[in-house]
Design a protein that fits this description.
The chain is mainly alpha-helical and 178 residues long. It has helices at residues 3-10, 16-28, 33-41, 48-62, 70-79, 83-98, 106-121, 126-139, 144-157, 163-176.
Length: 178
């Protein structure tokens, strides 16, 4: 592992500028991707959530770069418990799931769907629930059963959720009813 890179992640903070600088560092030297993923998925590393932040930014703009790492990333999604990392993890799942440049295996797709359903019915905060809805909505195009499941979950939880959840739920229901 590149100790200079690890040190920069360990000393980083949540500011957009700091995260963008680390993202640029990885994009300028793609050999750092394997180190980034190693940090991201190492739940015993107290800085793993900071790795999630950078991985999330890369997934958003360059999802194809994470394609070789899906066998490590996707099982990590369901194990992630740090609140600061769950939001980013849900976004990584979304960006990998909807990307036309990333081809998930059937098993990886199933694991993403399962994890998103867990976020949606569990006690995750609003943002992971919203990204889970969006990801499931995307996969519902290939798997009809997801539409019914998603609709049932949304309708059951709708009244007790926040305005942000409700807005995303209405959009999701509109898309799956087409």
């Amino acid at each position: 592992m590149n100790s200079n890179f690890y040190h920069k992640i360990a000393n980083s903070n949540a500011s957009t500028n700091c995260r963008n600088n680390l993202k640029k560092m990885v994009l300028n030297d793609e050999t750092l991707l394997s180190d980034l993923i190693a940090i991201t998925i190492d739940l015993s590393d107290k800085n793993h959530y900071k790795g999630v932040w950078i991985s999330e930014m890369i997934a958003e703009t360059n999802s194809h770069l994470l394609s070789p790492f899906t066998p490590q990333l996707i099982p990590f999604f369901s194990k992630c418990k740090h609140q600061s990392a769950i939001r980013g993890t849900s976004r990584i799942a979304y960006f990998l799931g909807v990307s036309d440049k990333v081809k998930l295996t059937e098993a990886e797709e199933e694991k993403v769907i399962e994890t998103c359903l867990d976020w949606l019915i569990g006690d995750a905060k609003v943002a992971p629930k919203v990204y889970a809805m969006y990801t499931l909505c995307h996969f519902a195009k290939q798997h009809d059963w997801i539409k019914d499941e998603l609709q049932n979950i949304i309708e059951k939880d709708f009244a007790s959720q926040s305005a942000g959840y409700k807005a995303a739920a209405r959009e999701t229901l509109r898309k799956i009813s087409r």
